[in-house]
Amino acid sequence: MNIPSKYNAKDVESKWYDYWMKHNYFHSEVDDREPYTIVIPPPNVTGVLHMGHMLNNTIQDVLIRRARLQGKNACWVPGTDHASIATEAKVVAKLKEQGIDKSDISREEFLKHAFEWKEQYGGIILEQLKKLGASCDWDRTKFTMDDDMSESVIKVFVDLYNKGLIYRGYRMVNWDPEAKTTLSDEEVIYEERQGNLYYLQYDIVDSDEKVTIATTRPETILGDTAICINPTDERFSHLKGKKAIVPLCNREIPIIEDEYVDVEFGTGCLKVTPAHDENDKVLGEKHNLEVTDIFNEDATLNSFGLHYQGKDRFVVRKEISKELEEKGYLVKIEQYINKVGTSERTKAVIEPRLSDQWFLKMEDLAKPALEAVLGEDREVKLYPKKFENTYRHWMENIRDWNISRQLWWGQQIPAFYYGDGKEDFVVAESLQEALVLAQEKTGNSSLSASDLRQDPDVLDTWFSSWLWPISVFDGIRNPENEEINYYYPTNDLVTGPDILFFWVARMIIAGYEYKDARPFENVYLTGLVRDKQRRKMSKSLGNSPDALKLIEDYSADGVRVGLLLSSAAGNDLLFDEALCQQGKGLGNKIWSAFYLTTLWEKSDKREQPQASKIAIEWYKAKFQKTLADIEDHYSKYRLSDALMAMYKLIYDDFCGWLLEIVKPAYQQPIDAKTYNEVIAIFEDNLKILHPFMPFITEEIWQLIADRSPEEALIVAKYPEVQESNESLITDFDFASEVVSGIRTIRKEKNIAFKETIDLSVINNEKVSNQFDSVIQKLGNVEKLDYITETLEGAMSFRVKSNEYFIPISLDNINVEEEIQKLTEELNYTEGFLKSVQKKLSNERFVSGAPEQVVANEKKKEADALAKIETLKASLAALQ
User: Fold this and answer.
1) Which of 239, 554, 633, 857 is the most buried if burial means most Cβ atoms within 10 Å?
2) Could you tell me if residue 201 is inside a domain?
3) Do both 196 and 325 map to the same domain?
């Protein structure tokens, strides 16, 4: 077999992914095995692969591949989210390029264009995930607007409405003027921004007096319907019952009294604009004020905006403040920092707006979900635990969920209107069912389908994805089907903390409402991927690398390792391409190790050397100890730690030590027993590393032996944790330090490795001699003697309290240089000893310091005394 000396990832990755797909290893069907289920956090159908996706899906793939190796029925369901706002914006933009305006076409025509766009551009990210090695069950790929998924969403809406949990209300909502839709409270991001506080004067009717108010939004004065004062504020008591005149539009408005007004803020007088502020709306309802909405849906001013009609609110802000100043109404402007709500999707500044919307009552629905995470049983566990406090805060302060959106892309709300009254509607899963209900409600059997009109709004995208773990197994439409009963609840959810409420909490709510069970057992919350300067990666900053280019440059395995080497749960990942290079380097190291074994000639007649025998026993013990550590890391979702444990085991212990020990002499064969055991060990290494580096491990696995599809690494049997021999590990660690000491002297004294040396040891530590054969082989030691007294005329080194001596011919060294170096080291050590002894001679220190601190100082003294003795002996040998 012709094995290349260098690894070529490009050829290998496509070859094995195609092989895995061909043999259906990713697909799962119900059987009698233990299921292990993950549902993918469905990325936006508009999305392309970025670093956050890379991290999130690598973690999921590690978990699913490990479960598969453990013999579980692993099912990883992929899919995409229709992302109402983002996708509609892209379709609208594409239509504009073609000279088509959304308002000029019908809903049916728009949806046709939207689905065409989805077919052309949607799901790109899923294809990109395959490049990363994601082993999703692609046969199960779902889209949140698939017919069966939409049917489930509508069924849930109708059910919740019939339970009295969904209602229609005229409320102040968060309006996104760019997307032209309402948003839920959770979709609004509040940012501190530098703004201005404008002090404006209002004339008092039938008086020369004026009253001053302070506002951050001078454009909204055109919607003012009152001025409010605090009834306890004596400064304005004389204004009670009077009226003020709104500047520019000259409307008379009442001066009202309410304790809501903060007498300390601004001037103590408050302008009331019920159509454009939540608190003003409450005041308006309480005092029966008029409501004057001055904005169009795109936040330009409407007919109430006087000569500013049709202009954007921020343009008007500048222009109206100038006009107010020119006409003597503007007293002063102060700089003012306030919190501004922005759209999580479009980044537009949110406009409070009164609107008829659909809401879901959340208080009672949230209680089982709160108990699931924070109750005694902790049915749903968050990793890391620190996010429980965030979860508690959100869930204990939950508000009704605004679930309607003023869009066309999404599931259309199944409410059907038959009249103009607020209650003239019915809610049903289909037009036919709605007609029957409308006829019953009105008592009019002649009512026809054409008399009904469906609510034009669609449901919030999250209202479909909160059903994801249930609906992907058709658990809403067919609640007792075989798949939902087998795969649900799922096991692990991997997602970002930024959607802990948007998605995770809501899925838990839906799980208890519709399956009376948690949707998943564990939630692994990843951190954000940041650059080395701790900045969040984004296109605008230009600090986000091209994910596919990284795979091309460093291999999929290399990028996976690079991402996970520094990705502790819940902590932000400081991404550096050097980590991917390190991952690629690990792959190259493993390949070189495999290539080395292919060069060995195997002999059935050769006896196994003692060094190989004990080294294999040691590595097996080290493997079991590391495997136990790895399993512990997995149980706590410390995947970075699990990977690092593997990295050290394979890079240092296997490649660095074991292969060096068992390697046959130049042009000599290796005994068959050692060879076979090393290959078996190599295979176990590949099994535990496969979830992290699937491609290179499968390639080497298949090259080691001719295997059938049933014997592929992806479905091999994962090693089981067994008891490890701790003393073997400890003794080897000691022996490896001895080898390092020998190599240091060889390097310092320029003794070539091909030259044999003798080694003598004073074994004060009573170390076992079982690794002597290893020390002799790796140090090229011809004779190893145990002695009781210092060996004169030899170079020495220490490992703990053991002293090792190597006779050195003075012909091979520069005696003067060596004497100078040893003298300098002796002087330093003697100085160090004096400082330690001075501290130990201080009675206050010895009696007052903790016992362990004093013990450490005494150990330093003993080590220094022993080193001085060794240095003096080495000097004596040279003089």
Assistant:
1) 554
2) yes
3) yes
Alpha helices (H) along 144-266: 147-162
Peptide bond before residue 384 is cis, with ω within 30 degrees of 0: yes
| pLDDT-wise least confident of 235-249, 301-315, 563-577, 738-752 | 563-577
Residues 796 and 679 in one domain: no
User: Are the C-beta atoms of residues 448 and 435 closer than 8 Å to each other?
Assistant: yes
Whichever domain contains 305, its CATH number is 3.90.740.10
In total, how many domains does the chain have?
3
824 inside domain: yes
Rounded Cα gap, residues 2 and 618, in angstroms? 32
Q: What is the mean pLDDT of residues 248-255?
A: 92
699, 724, 749: which is the final residue of a domain?
724
- The span from the CA of 174 to the CA of 354, in Å, is 9
What is the Cα–Cα distance from 667 to 755, expressed in whole angstroms? 18
Q: Is 215 in the same domain as 327?
A: yes
Find the CATH number of the domain harbouring 646. Answer: 1.10.730.10
Q: Tokens 């496509």 identify what position?
A: 14
Output the pLDDT for position 752: 84
Residue 715 and residue 763 in one domain:
no
Reply yes or no on whether the pLDDT at 266 is more than 90: no
Structural domain boundaries enclosing 640:
547-724
Residue with token string 């009963």: 485
Could you tell me if 696 and 784 lie in one domain? no
User: 587 and 658: one domain?
Assistant: yes
The pTM assigned to this predicted structure is 0.84
Contact 395, 505 (CB under 8 A): yes
Q: What is the DSSP letter of 212?
A: E
Return all residues near 81 (Cβ < 8 A) that are at least 6 apart.
42, 43, 44, 45, 144, 461, 464, 465
Where would I find the beta strands (DSSP E) of 713-864? 757-762, 781-786, 794-799, 802-807
Tokens of 358: 């659909």
Q: Rounded distance, CA 527 to CA 344, Å? A: 19
Amino acid, single-letter form, for residue 802: N
The pairing of beta strand 573-574 with beta strand 529-530: parallel
Helix pair angle (694-704, 556-564), 10° resolution: 130
